[in-house]
Design a protein that fits this description.
This protein has about 500 residues and is mainly beta. It has four domains: about 5-115, Immunoglobulins (Immunoglobulin-like, Sandwich), CATH 2.60.40; about 220-310, Immunoglobulin-like; about 310-400, Bacterial OB-fold (OB fold (Dihydrolipoamide Acetyltransferase, E2P), Beta Barrel), CATH 2.40.50.200; about 405-510, Bacterial OB-fold (OB fold (Dihydrolipoamide Acetyltransferase, E2P)). The protein is about 10% helix and about 55% strand. It has six helices and 39 strands. The chain starts with a strand and ends with a strand.
Amino acid sequence: MKLKYLFPIFIAILALMTSCDDEETMTLLPEIQVSSSFVTLPQGGGSTSINVTAKASWTAEKVTTEKDAVEWLTISSTTGEAGETEISFSAPSAIDGRTAEVLLNCGGATQRINIMQGLAQISEATVAEAKAAPDGKTLRITGVCTKITNTLYGNWYLTDETGELYIYGTLDKKGVDKNFLSLGLEVGDEVTIEGPKGSYKGDPQMVNVMVIQINKSLVKVDSVQNATLPVDGGEFIAYLTCKGQGVSVEIPNDAKSWLSISSIQSAGNNTVVKFKAEANAEGDRETTLTFSTTDGSKTYTTQTTLSQAGAIVDATIAEFLAAEVGDRQYRLKGIITNISDATSGKLNLRDFSGETYVYKIQDFATKGLKEGDIITIVGKRAAYNGSPQVSGAVLESVISHVIPATVTEALTKPDDANTYYMVTGEITSIASETYGNLYLSDGTSEIYVYGCYPGYGATGNDRKGLIAAKGLKVGDTLTIIAPKITYTNATTGVSTIELSPSFYFSHVSAN
């Protein structure tokens, strides 16, 4: 490999620390500010100090990885109080240049300090070689930008013939962060970067890189039409600018069964590619389309993503639990039995057939839901550590905001088959063990429960057997959910106030 020295980055850092104009381009946090966010240390060992101005108490921590615990860097103080404090960073001599990052935390804000000792030696590397390199080593890599995930910090993917590598943070031409868009980097561009190798949870990545050169792609996607197709399918259109010798299109193998090219039309540098998507009887699906061109010696590519909504399967919770993990969408109805996180909507949902954990419901905090409410959600079958759960859940409807009521209160409620009450009482007698016909008392009043079923949604034979399954008996305290109705016998003309049909929520045994 050829070895070079990181003079461009070093010069940029020096310019940043000495230029007042450049300092003004940095984002200043109201909670905590530093005299310099870049610290250079002599390669032969030594220390450098900066001033910290904070509105409240603060802490400092080194960013460590599995491969670099940053034990070589010493911070004079890792805590401080409000006001101005001087802290120093020191390190022993180093054979090769090295870098580190320190986080200053204050009042919920984080100020990053970049540490560099000596002149980092640059090794030209492929993506595969970069992944195998030790953390902290400075590398120069050339590849194609295949995906951009964050346009503020500059998080994206670089790909060459040996693989794909995540770029976490990209500095602008002056070495300043949070200015990625100024570089003009687009998907499909060939780009050369320099920076330190890092890792996150064992996954290799490049961190806070400098862009050395951008070779603009000869083909790019200007816009698309119908980027998200409906279940019934339809036409997806990509509008391209191509300055190369023709356009070729690649559809991934896993999408060829439902997606095809219907036409390619070119006029000058403009190309329109139309695709036809078939109806989707499965779950949500997505694919990445690749467009390529050439200048005769080099191939240039760009990509765009197409997604299609999937069919929604109405299912009992038992059927959902038996399904495979995947992108198929399921519609589930049941009662909320437990809410473990009221902000994000982590809860348990139960119907007559079973119970499942729901990992977050979108916008749950604004819905005013509570335990006992009956809801309909749509989500995917997922699993965590082997345990089934619903992921990507969306609240489709609230069947009923269940109202707590005593037996005495329930007797006075208006008849309404669509309003559910949560009623707790002592079982005073059981009229039918098969269907769960019984009487409940709160010590003052008694009410007839006509049909206590295993859970919400039970029909047919699924309504039977609750009494035996739960071991219910006279004297137990039972909580049910049911509407209040008045039943009039057509023969005798006698009217009875009832909770019907009801379903089980919980019980406490008399023993």
